[in-house]
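Justification of resources, computational component.

The compute hours requested in this renewal are based largely on the per-chain cost of generating structure records like the one below. Each record pairs the submitted sequence with a full structure-token output. That output is archived, and it is also reused by downstream analysis tasks.
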Amino acid sequence: MLADLALIDGNVITMDSSQPSVEAIAIKKDRIVKVGTNEEINPWIGKDTEIIHLNGRTAVPGLIDSHIHVADFGKVLTWIDLQDVNSIEEMQRRIRKRVQQIHKGRWIIGNGWNQTSFIEKRYPNLQDLDEASPENPVILYHQCGRVCVVNSKALELAGVTKETVSPSGGEIEKNAETGEPTGILRENATDLVWKTIPTSSEEELMEAASLACKKIVEAGVTSIHWIVTASNEISIIQRLRTENKLPLRVHVIAPANILDKTNGSVSILGSGDKLGVKVFVDGSLAARTAALREPYSDDQKTKGQLLYSQEELNALVVNAHKANVRLVMHAMGDQAIDMTLTAIEKALVEVPRKNHRHRIEHASVLNNDLIQRIKKLGMIVSVQPKCVISEFSVWSAVNRLGSKRVRLLYPLKTLTKEGIRVIGGSDCPMEPISPLLGIQAAVTRQFFAEEQITIDEALRMYTVNAAYASFEEKSKGSIEEGKLADVTIISDDPRKTPPSKIGDIKVTMTIVGGKVVYQK
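The structure output for this chain reads:
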């Protein structure tokens, strides 16, 4: 038997402890049939074998993003990109250009601006946006995500006036003299306008999702855990699969209410894969809605918000566990994590199952007791390393939690040392899609640097650990004979690159099932 594709002359990091580094890979159809030296691969090469000379470039197992909002990412890709804008005048110019391209009354959405980069050294406001777009509603998100500026038309459609009271966990910024909104909305107040924007049609979602998938494979990602946020995304995934428009592998994580429509053992997508179900136990640290045992250090009036009582959560978790559904429990605060673990403990008493692979999403505010319970239960912890950096640098985690609690905020090294399986994702579009940036963030963390992990440990988060989380460790996550031919080829070896430069490594090729789906 001869190979269809051979990768030779490379630096292959296999993530297989029995053969950690090789030169070459032989692929037949969608499987790896041989790994080894160039000489060992030569007998697999025939006249019809396609040969890719890596010329010393590094190949790693196809990278897996364990937490991505694909539909939202696709939508963001259609927005006005304001990351490189250095003035309010330039922002207005881009708005005017978009106004000329769309119908009157259509929404204009953008993101990525940062007032510290502006020549004017101030926030943009409602008047600035009105000058550029008096008829089309406009909402432009700050680089940090949970701050935006809107124009008068957007406020009008959202019903926001000078009399509107700021929602809990948010602020409608108002002029100190007139009381009129300035156009700046913060945290939960951003939702007042967002919920007014019409939902996308199925064709618009198809276009957005296709665009997102293209960008995802360009980042070297071969598999994703798609976080479904709306029911119509299910039909989008079905269509993408049916129409052969998925260039990567998808594991679906659906909202908890999907349990009403499936028994959990078979995916509603018809793929035969088990379904992951996401349950929100609390909110976020950024909005002070993550549920804490003790009040927030910078706001003694609140401990956050629980979305279930313990009894309600117990019932939901037990039912899902009995249906053999993998639970993805969004729990950020220590109180929410405690409740989550209590519910899992109860479920495992009723239906003992060692290999459940339930996971806690974020698991932000931890302590030694919670860590030991996570370990005992065999729970997986899902973390987005770029978000960890943002919690400290953008959302002032030290002030929010106090010096004692913040020490074990996302303690990646502690979790790893305890033998807890940690998996990595991006939370894109909240953070960049690049796994290499995630790896860089995990190994260069400046806040409580003792929680930095090694490059090998970080790479495992996006390969073997991520594959294990979805019961796919026998088919992906490492470069081994018999496994799926999912390979990411990058310009440099991250183990030999200065840690602060890992994010600069280029993805030069992405291979899924033996097919090149992206080439730089």
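The longest strand covers residues 181-187. The chain has 17 helices and 24 strands.
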